[in-house]
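Query structure, 64 tokens:
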């Protein structure tokens, strides 16, 4: 998954005002105790990060 697609999905789900805030502030154990930004910076694949976000935040299947 391209980062542009990842951020489009984040924005679609969380809204333009909250997507980056969530990605910057929400620490997830499933990402090794990292935020979305930290996981991506550490080399995690965007698709894997998106899957974690979907699981943790109960993103509906049709939006995954």
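Result returned for the query:
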């Amino acid at each position: 998954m391209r980062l542009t697609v990842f951020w489009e999905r984040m924005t679609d789900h969380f809204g333009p005002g909250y997507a980056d805030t969530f990605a910057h502030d929400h620490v997830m154990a499933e990402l090794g105790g990292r935020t979305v930004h930290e996981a991506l910076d550490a080399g995690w694949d965007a698709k894997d990060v998106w899957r974690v976000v979907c699981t943790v935040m109960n993103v509906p299947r049709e939006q995954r």
